[in-house]
Amino acid sequence: MWIDTHCHLDAPEFDADRAAVVARARAAGVSMQVLPAVEVANFDTVRHLAHEHGLAYALGIHPLYVDRAADEDLDRLQQALAMHRDDPRLVAVGEIGLDHFVPGLNRDRQQRFYTAQLKLARDAGLPVILHVRRSADALLAGLRRVDVPGGIAHAFNGSRQQAEVFAGLGFALGFGGAMSFERALNVRALAVAVDASVPVLETDAPDIAPQWLYRTAAQRAAGQTSRNEPAELPRMAAVLADLRGWTLTETAEHCASNARRVLPRLVGRW
After folding, report:
1. Residues 17, 206 contacting (CB under 8 angstroms)
2. Among candidates 84, 134, 91, 77, which has minimal Cα distance to 5?
3. Which end of the chain is more exposed for a tag (fewer CB within 10 A), N or C?
4. Residues in a beta bridge with 56
5. 47-74: per-residue pLDDT in tens?
6. Residues 206-256: pLDDT tens digits?
7. Does residue 270 surpass a pLDDT of 60?
8. Can you list the positions of beta strands (E) in the chain?
9. How many other CB atoms are there within 10 angstroms of residue 134's CB atom?
10. Is residue 131 marked as binding?
11. Residue 254 annotated as lining a ligand binding site
């Protein structure tokens, strides 16, 4: 059985066939998905989807959304975490973090929201799901100041040294479609180098499509799409297994155990 630790099932790309997406995932052996929120407006949506389909969810404000968020949204997050603190399907605060890749974002505002959400996670006793894009050192600086109970560094593509620091702070690292590209040398090297207690699997569906779903610019212009979905996770797991020299059974055991360790409320959910 597989766990997709990061899937945006609420995304509009799934509006036409969301139930079928979940069914295909289950048929492929993906027994659990974690649905992270990205802004206050979709808090209720991810929670309802998690309960409707027997999945898990996280609540947070994504760094790409902080510029349009109100300051009061941090209060709304605090209220939501308090209201649903006894909900076993609420497994983390996320997706939160810092994005130093997309130009034009207000870094000071990102930092303020990141620090505030770390404090809310700490106070709620919940791990965090971190967005990491060219921001690993800044994220680690925040984690040194605010002690949270671990979590997942999603779609990690930092250095081996940074990976080791995240692991030392109780974090798993998320690996998915990116490692299926032979030219993704750093991600593939990290997938091999990290300790067996570190990797978890994720799709980030509908985003970060694996190599076999990739479409060229010409194909996209012709109307072909490359929507990722959680049913692709076992094939991504096979890539990780091949890179590490694990069997699929070993890969499932390691990654599921790691997911349960960093997101303890997943224990007993499947």
Report:
1. no
2. 91
3. N
4. 34
5. 999 999 999 999 999 999 999 999 999 9
6. 999 999 998 776 777 676 778 999 999 999 999 999 999 999 999 999 999
7. no
8. 2-4, 30-36, 56-59, 90-99, 128-133, 151-154, 171-175, 199-201
9. 13
10. yes
11. no
Helix axes 160-168, 136-145, angle to 10 degrees: 20
User: So what's the pLDDT on residue 223?
Assistant: 67
Identify whether the C-beta of residue 65 lies closer than 8 Å to the C-beta of residue 50. Answer: no
CA distance 245 to 72: 49
Contact 144, 171 (CB under 8 A): no
**Alpha-carbon gap, residue 180 to 160, rounded angstroms:** 19
The answer to whether the annotation marks 6 as part of a ligand binding site is yes
Q: Which CATH number fits domain 2-265: 3.40.50.720, 3.40.190.10, 3.40.430.10, 3.20.20.140?
A: 3.20.20.140
Tell me whether residue 261 is exposed, middle or buried, using C-beta atoms within 10 angstroms of its C-beta: 0 to 12, 13 to 18, 19 or more: middle
Check the annotation: does 147 bind a ligand: no
**Residue 49 corresponds to which tokens in the numbers above?**
């989807």
By three-state DSSP, how is residue 131 classified? strand
For residues 254 and 190, the answer to whether their CB atoms sit within 8 Å is no
- Helix, strand counts (H, E) of the chain: 10, 8
The predicted-structure confidence for 101-141, as pLDDT tens digits, reads as follows 999 999 999 999 999 999 999 999 999 999 999 999 999 99
Alpha-carbon distance 30 to 205, whole Å? 13
Query: pTM for the full model?
Result: 0.96
Q: 3-16 as b/e, with b when 16 or more CB fall inside 10 Å?
A: bbbbbbbbbebbee
Do the annotations mark residue 95 as ligand-binding? yes
